[in-house]
Design brief:
Helix content is 39%, strand content 19%. It binds adenosine-5'-diphosphate (ADP) and magnesium ion.
């Protein structure tokens, strides 16, 4: 049934609901509250204190008085009492209140208590006659996400009506035996109590059941996608002998690197389509893993493409790999937007003729006019910077019947439980180890008094020929927040602190070209101190940069701080990371202490998840996972594993129809 036929709604108001994506009664029931207002606490007046939101049951002690303060501001006042005390009520612009409250009658009032303990007050409380109370007071009320002109009252009434129309036995997408075994309540009870909880306990039961359902459907959908892919055929590329390639490197691969290469080569030779994520901390040496896979693919008769999110990164990969590959008789070409038209044309020709074995580039690789010869492997670096769609497009560029194998690399360590969800549709290899001889970046949380010393330190390093990053959390237009703003900050450094040094600025609002130019100048050493927002996060290598200064470090997630810190310590020189702490909060200080002692990105990620929840991680992947309606991955980890186990068991046989339908709908949204 359509929302517009509900009482009090109609065609016009139905449009407001439509703005929230709500069209049918089903939609309404699945539109869970974003929070609740607990109005169950009914207290004696003597036992309330200013600042609390409570209900009191009290008798009106005087007729409501009325003053006009000025045009448009009418004030109504009265006082109410119970056996224990008196409470003073004020209402603004509420003419109806004069007739709503009769002296001597009892009501239940709900509101926030203000005033002093000698004279307690409530402003604009909700009131209900005592004998009819229980709709707006004395219970837990849902709060919904709204849109302009739509009130909580109207939304509540619509949901209430929708629920009233739900049949006594509406069915349940969870099979009975599973529900009983896991102690999950019925669907009907769950919807009722997620919207209008009879008690905090009932709400918890309802929530648990619905979160489980949400996670179960997601896991089933993800595993279907993964299975579908595993059945999808891919080029069978036999693993090549890579001993000459390994011998040409100045160092030996780490065990983790070798294991990662093995995983990929095994996938690629299986005859099934590869879709593997290599997750390895900053500096763990993912580039060489990519390179080894590329060599193997080329030797199997295919082309390999390596796509990076920025031109500089693509150029750096090109510089690293071109010579190495030439030594093996493999031609490498670079294709980025920055090349001259003639060079682009030449690159495209080498790609389409098959002369190029390895193709390195940016988004330009998926632009029209690039035709591959026999693209067998695509590798995406810093995968979180690309949408899923980009990766699909590149892989489909293979042109022939089969899409290319996909290996994606990410330097963002993700806690295991989260990875199961975020990457449920991929196979995952984790590289935890680091190449030998890495020196940890010495990390110091500092406060404002240290600023002069840090400035002196910056100058000393620059005089020694080294370079410095300074990262600020935001850019100019948030100035009023009082946080360091990159633009002002750079201006100040240039004008007052380091007038003799070359200070550059890099932020997200600059044109892409300008950003690239600035970053390039920094890699060449033409900029000595680079003030930047987090746009520098992505894997650019400037071995000469040895100090990372982070302003307002408390505003970053730990994983993000770890990423930023990974920008230094990439050469032989000792490196430092200084994190300015502007907040005085104890938690903020504790978080930064974790950074000081922990060097392992995975450990930091786990700590971050516990401290801040999963939001930061999800932000990283523009993956097209739907937003969770209820599940909160930091609080509901137990349900994540439970849902995963059950999904595995359920997937073995056909699903009950209702569950099948939910899974099917979600799969459509995911792909
Ligand atoms: P990331 O995983 O962050 O992409 P890179 O691939 O950029 O890391 O590697 C970081 C640095 O480590 C590079 O300078 C690279 O040459 C070096 N490196 C990679 N593998 C090894 C190894 N096995 N032994 C020593 N150094 C290595
Ligand atoms: Mg890298």
């Amino acid at each position: 049934m359509d929302i517009q036929y509900l009482k009090g709604i109609g065609e016009k108001r139905a449009k407001l609901f439509a703005r929230l994506g709500l069209f049918t009664l089903e939609d309404l029931l699945a539109f869970y509250p974003r929070g609740y207002e607990d109005r169950t606490d009914i207290r004696d007046i003597a036992r309330v204190s200013p600042g609390e939101s409570v209900c009191v049951r009290a008798i009106v002690g005087a007729p409501v008085s009325h003053h006009r303060v000025r045009a448009g501001l009418e004030v109504y006042k009265t006082r109410v009492f119970d056996e224990t005390g008196t409470l003073y009520l004020t209402f603004f612009n509420a003419p109806y209140i004069k007739s709503a409250l009769s002296t001597g009658a009892e009501y239940v009032f709900f509101g926030k208590v203000t005033g002093e303990s000698e004279r307690l007050e409530m402003t604009n409380p909700v009131c209900e006659p005592s004998e009819k109370a229980g709709r707006s007071t004395g219970r837990i009320l849902p709060r919904y996400r709204l849109t302009a002109d739509l009130s909580q009252g109207l939304m509540r009434s619509a949901v209430e009506q929708a629920f009233a129309k739900l049949p006594e036995d509406p069915g349940d997408m969870l099979p009975d035996d599973l529900r009983k075994r896991l102690n999950l309540c019925r669907y009907r009870f769950a919807v009722q109590n997620i919207h209008f909880p009879q008690s905090a306990q009932a709400l918890a039961l309802a929530r648990r059941r619905l979160v489980f359902e949400e996670l179960l459907v997601l896991q089933l959908a993800l595993s279907r996608l993964k299975d579908g892919r595993q059945r999808q055929p891919g080029y069978a590329l036999p693993p090549a002998d890579l001993s000459d390639f390994y011998a040409s490197l100045p160092f030996r691969l780490t065990d983790d690197q070798i294991a990662a290469v093995d995983d990929c080569l095994r996938d690629m030779s299986s005859g099934k389509l590869t879709h593997r994520l290599i997750q390895g901390d900053v500096g763990s040496g993912k580039t060489l893993v990519a390179a080894a896979c590329a060599v193997s693919a080329v030797r199997g008769g295919a082309q390999a493409a390596l796509m990076a999110p920025t031109e500089i990164l693509a150029e750096q990969h090109f510089e690293t790999l071109e010579r190495l590959f030439a030594g093996l008789g493999i031609e490498t070409v670079l294709l980025t937007g920055r090349l001259t038209a003639a060079r682009k044309r030449a690159a495209r020709e080498k790609i389409s003729s098959g002369q190029a074995g390895l193709i390195i580039g940016t988004h330009a690789l998926i632009s029209q006019g690039v035709e591959f010869h026999r693209l067998g492997l695509t590798i995406t670096d810093e995968q979180h910077r690309f949408g899923v769609r980009h990766q699909n497009v590149l892989s489909a560029k293979a042109g022939d019947a089969l899409p290319a194998h996909r290996v994606v690399m990410s330097a963002t360590p993700i806690p295991r439980t989260l990875a199961l969800i975020m990457y449920g549709d991929m196979d995952v290899t984790v590289m935890r180890g680091m190449p030998p001889g890495r020196r940890p970046v010495r990390t110091f949380p500092v406060t404002e008094e240290m600023r002069p010393r840090i400035h002196a330190f910056i100058r000393k390093l620059v005089n020694q020929g080294q370079q410095v990053y300074v990262v600020c959390p935001i850019i100019e237009d948030e100035r009023e927040l009082g946080f360091a703003a990159a633009e002002d900050y750079a201006e100040n450094l240039r004008a007052k602190v380091f007038p003799d040094l070359s200070v550059g600025l890099l932020h997200g609002r600059m044109a892409a070209r300008k950003k690239e130019d600035t970053m390039r100048a920094f890699t060449r050493g033409e900029i000595q101190v680079l003030v930047a927002t987090t746009v520098i996060e992505v894997g650019v290598n400037v071995p000469n940069a040895t100090l990372m200064v982070i302003e307002n470090a408390e505003r970053f997630g730990l994983s993000q701080l770890h990423q930023l810190r990974g920008r230094v310590g990439r050469g032989h020189l000792e490196s430092h990371c200084v994190m300015f702490l502007q907040s005085k909060s104890e938690t903020a200080r504790k978080r930064l202490e974790i950074m000081k002692s922990a060097a392992d990105g995975f450990a930091i990620a786990e700590a971050d998840l516990a401290l801040r929840g999963p939001g930061d991680f999800f932000g990283e992947r523009q993956h097209g996972l739907p937003e969770f309606k209820l599940a909160d991955l930091s609080a509901d980890m137990e349900l994540v594993s439970l849902a995963r186990e059950e999904a595995r068991a359920l997937a073995r046989s056909p699903l009950p129809a209702a569950l099948e339908k939910a899974v099917g709908t979600l799969m459509k949204n995911l792909s």
